[in-house]
Amino acid sequence: MRGTRRAAGGSSEYSTVAISSPPAPAAKSISVAPGARLTIRSGGSRTSTSRPRSSVTVLARGPIPYTPREALSPRVIVNRLVIDIMSRKSYAPRIMNYLAERRQEEKERRRAEILDAAEAVLERAGWDELTMEQVARNARLSRALVYVYFRDKGDVMFGLCERALVRLRQRFGEAVSRHKLGLDQIIAIGRAYIAFSQEFPVYFDTLARCELREVNPANASPSETACRLVGDGVHGLMVAVLEDGVRDGSIRADIGNRMLAATALWGITHGVLQLSVSKAKLLAHHGVDARALLDQAMVMATRSLAAKP
């Protein structure tokens, strides 16, 4: 039998327990003899199987279903198991750890589904039109359940910001791996950011909006905290590339504090990108091509970093 059954109000978890005889009618527990195979399935295809050396009592929160069809196999399905190990207590933590892992996986899957739904709404309507009700409807969930995972629209934004930064960090890493000198690597990072903004406009817009939000670490949500940690990793990569460039002689040694330099480069690139996107018509009115503006910014940044020959 499958590990998870969908129902109107959510999902029900089942576990399979090896037994040798049917339980009593309306029973709420069964005993598994030492050496019998005990298989736990909870919410998915992963299983945990063991042959306990001591007697195991399986408790259910309701009567144990047992039908003639199930009688054909020495197994019984027990709804939402609670397992009590009579004597071999060291086995209990393994079961509990497994069930805790499955619950965490389910939470992460549900959270990802909500973010997928929000991303789909954004591609159609944009941030100004997005509501929690739209996200819930697109995810086919109740609005109350969405609020269990995200406290408001801003929290959803930081959840997507984390997703955007993870992908951006991957793109930066790929760009760096194609070059040896630090200066070439930092230029490649800038080019990768430009390409990222054009390939993932929803993510870039999300990053821009998150940059404007001040987060208090004392009461930050999990999404805000995760976003900050991933962002620290992105900045950390830029700092490491600057340090490598100074060591290999391609970047001038007097750039000062590496974190300040990395933040300045990020601000310049991000600002010019925003300008090229949000003010494209105004730039064109003044005879400024958006792509040429980006290229000019990269040239100026390169000249400011390059070591003198």
Explain what you see.
With 309 residues, the protein is of the alpha+beta class. It has three domains: 86 residues, no CATH class; 40 residues, Homeodomain-like (Arc Repressor Mutant, subunit A), CATH 1.10.10.60; 149 residues, Tetracycline Repressor, domain 2 (Orthogonal Bundle). A hairpin with a 5-residue loop joins strand 4 and strand 5. Helix 6 crosses helix 7. 27% of the residues are buried.
Task: Enumerate the strands of the largest sheet in spatial order, edge to edge or round the barrel.
Answer: 1-2-7
**SS content category:** alpha+beta
Overall radius of gyration: 28 Å
Termini distance?
A: 71 Å
User: What is the overall number of helices?
Assistant: 11
List the helices and strands and how they pair.
Blueprint: E1 4-7, E2 10-18, E3 29-32, E4 38-41, E5 47-50, E6 56-59, H1 68-71, E7 75-79, E8 82-85, H2 91-125, H3 132-139, H4 143-149, H5 153-177, H6 182-199, H7 201-211, H8 222-248, H9 258-278, H10 280-285, H11 290-305
Antiparallel strand pairs: 1-2, 2-7, 3-6, 4-5, 6-8
Helix pairs in contact: 2-3, 3-4, 5-6, 5-7, 5-8, 6-7, 6-8, 6-9, 6-11, 8-9, 9-11
Characteristic key phrases:
single chain, 309 residues, alpha+beta, Arc Repressor Mutant, subunit A, Tetracycline Repressor, domain 2, 3-stranded antiparallel β-sheet, 11 helices, 12% strand, disordered N terminus
